[in-house]
Design brief:
- This protein starts with 9 loop residues before the first helix and ends in a 6-residue tail after the last helix.
- It is built from three helices and no strands.
- Helix content is about 60%, strand content about 0%.
């Protein structure tokens, strides 16, 4: 769900959106804010990687569609 920016639990939704759309704005406080919700540093790392990879794949697909002269989905 994180890779595809799908439905995720409430504590993660804003974090995943931030990584997906504005990764450069993610702060230590954002990461630390997930600890009270029960997410370990390892889990947050995996979520971050999945969200970043999803964003990259989305942007790649949009770029490839533009090169083919297609409208992105």
């Amino acid at each position: 769900a994180v890779l595809e920016r799908g439905k995720v639990p409430a504590p993660l939704a804003s974090y995943v959106d931030k990584v997906f759309l504005h990764a450069y704005k993610v702060t230590d406080a954002d990461v630390a804010g997930l600890a009270p919700a029960g997410y370990s540093e390892d889990a947050v790392f995996e979520l971050t990687v999945a969200a970043a990879l999803g964003a990259a794949l989305n942007r790649l697909e949009r770029g490839m569609a533009a090169l083919r002269g297609q409208e992105p989905d």
